[in-house]
Amino acid sequence: MTWTQSLPGLAVLAAGLTLAPAANGPLVQPMATSAAAEQAVFDYWTPSRIAALTEPSSGKPPKSGADGAPWTSANAAQQTVGRLFYTDHGEDASCTATVVDSANRSTIVTAAHCVNNTDLIGEHNAWNAHLMFVPGYHDGQAPYGKFAVRYSVADATWLKNDQQGGQFNTYDQAFAVLGTNSGGKRVQDAVGAAQRIGFDLPADAEVTQFGYPRASDDPAREGLPEYTGERLAYCTGQARHLTGTKESPDQWGTACVMGGGSSGGPRLRDFDPKTGLGTVIGDNSHSGLLSATGIPCEDEKTDGCTRYLAGPQFSRAVTEPLYEAAQKQS
C-alpha cells in the first residue's frame, strides 16, 4: 500500500510550548487566548499571505466526477466547512475544518497534523502557530468572518508521531476552539448551522468528503478552481476499508482525487445534499490505493487501482474524549 502520512503540502511550525506527552487522552494547548494574541493572528494573515497559499489556475476545461467536483450549493455544507490557516515549523499552510455542534458553539474538527506536527524528518514535535479558521471561504472572501484558534485539542499519543509508518493514523484527528469574529459572534452563531458528530457509527456507508485542496491527483483537474485552495470541493461514494496498516485498522474513505489542503476535511454519512447537513464520522488524513477487490496496490499506475482519501473512523475511545475536552473550553 502506498500511504501518505499527511497530505502533500500540509505540515507545519508550531508555536507555543510543547506539552510533555501524557500516556494517552486529550491534551488542551492554549493558543490565542487574549485579545492581543487574537489580533496578532489576524494581522499575520494578510491578503498576500493567503494569496501565497493559492495555486495558479490552469485554465483547463471543467471536469467533475464522484471522485472530485466543486461544491456549488449554498447550504449548510458551504457554511460549516472552511479553510484552516496555520504555520508549521516556519512554513505557512492550510487545511480544512468543520463546525460541529457543541456546548460552547465554538468548536471545529480537523486532522491532528493540522494543529500539531513534527518537522519533515519526523522530529521536533510542536503545536502549529497562527491558526485561523475561515468558514465558507471562497476566492479570498470570508463571508462569516475570521476566527482565531484559542485552544487546540489532540490526543497525547499523537505527539509521539514520527511520520514513520501508519501506527499513528488512528490519532490523526483533533478539535480546535475558536474565539469570536469581528462582530463578536461565536462561529456556530455566525454561520447559522453546525454538523452533527458521531462515534462508533458503522463505517461501511455512503459518505461525502469535503476539502479545500490545493492539488489534484488527476492531471486533468490539476489547477481547476476547486483544486487551487480557493473553493470548496467534495467527493462522494461508498466508503471502503483501507487495510494497508495493521497498526491503524480503522482507516476509511471513498475514491477521491483531492490533494494537499483537504486534510482535516469531514467524512460525513447520512448527508443530505439539499440541506448540506450530515454526521461527521471521520476526517481526511492520508491517501491509499486499493484494487477493485479491496487489495492494497503498490502503484497507482497498476490497472484497476484507485486512489482513496482516508482517515480515522471517529470512536468513543479516541474521539469523544477530545470532543468533550474541546466543548469545555471557552
UniProtKB/TrEMBL annotation:
Top-level lineage group: Bacteria
Keywords recorded for this protein, A-Z: Signal
Sequence segments annotated as region (Disordered): 53-73
Signal peptide: 1-22
GO molecular function, one term: serine-type endopeptidase activity
UniProt entry tagged with the keyword Signal: yes
GO biological process: proteolysis
InterPro entries: Glutamyl_endopeptidase, Peptidase_S1_PA, Peptidase_S1_PA_chymotrypsin, TRYPSIN_HIS
Gene3D superfamilies given in the database record: Trypsin-like serine proteases
PROSITE patterns: TRYPSIN_HIS
Full protein name: Peptidase S1 domain-containing protein
Keyword Cytoplasm: no
Native source species: Amycolatopsis panacis
